[in-house]
Write a structure and sequence with these properties.
Strand content: 5-15%
Strand order of the largest sheet: 1-2
Largest sheet: 2 strands, antiparallel
Number of strands: 2
Oligomer: single chain
């Protein structure tokens, strides 16, 4: 990566990967945590972004090189967290007692 120093007006090449590796210290305890796949950071409370949308107005994600016809005919497009919550509420009495965010848990 090239960095431009505005004060001196010159361009300096910076190896960001080498900078990261040179400055990183991994202790024995961190190594053990990683080997045993323990969580490195606490994640409480977990934040989940809930997608609320009008019927057939949900967000659709696709890559630029995807075929548009294939994207719009995907079966997963019509299934969102919100639509599945409504569906299970029609079918289950227990689910009707849950709010949308409780349903996801």
């Amino acid at each position: 990566m090239l960095e431009h120093n505005a004060t001196e007006g010159n361009v300096v090449e910076v190896d960001e990967i080498k900078k990261y590796v040179d400055c990183r210290y991994v202790s024995a305890s961190e190594v053990m945590w990683r080997i045993f796949k323990f969580d490195m950071h606490e994640r409480f409370p977990i934040v989940e972004r809930l997608q609320y949308h009008l019927p057939n107005m949900q967000m659709v994600l696709f890559d630029n090189d995807d075929d548009v016809q294939e994207v719009v005919t995907r079966s997963t497009i019509s299934r969102t967290m919100l639509t599945e919550w409504f569906k299970i509420n029609r079918e289950s009495k227990v689910a009707r007692s849950l709010t949308f965010d409780q349903f996801l848990q």
